[in-house]
Predict the 3D structure of the following.
Amino acid sequence: MIPDTIERTVMINAPRERVWSVLTEPAFLGRWFGSGAPVEVDLRPGGLLVFDHGVHGTVPARLQRVEPPHTLSWRWSQGAAGQEPDDSNATLVEFTLTADDSTPGTRLTMVESGFARLGLPAGQATDRHRANSLNWPGKLDRLAADCEQLAA
């Protein structure tokens, strides 16, 4: 059976508006998620988001939900670099930001889903799930560090 979902939650010691900025602004997004170069982004539902993933090439994504400062989601291809995401090759990544009433911080929950529906052989879909599962903690740690450094 192909695992379908990855879910990670991190507490970030920064206000939700600051986390939203780091999550969505081109320079920050490129730093914590891409190769370091600013991303290209049309920040609206249906807008294009293009990441430079260095040796992995350019990866386009389509924004699904943009609801500042609460929810951001995109669909991105798990196929070849540069491939436009569609229903057969893409997973959905959704970030939800919640103010934490017990601290001045923000709870960020990331869910990536759709691996079981990819048009890939089962072994390749499982490998994508495994690789993404291993990569998300480091990416979310970088996002949190950027938020906390700038909030200080």
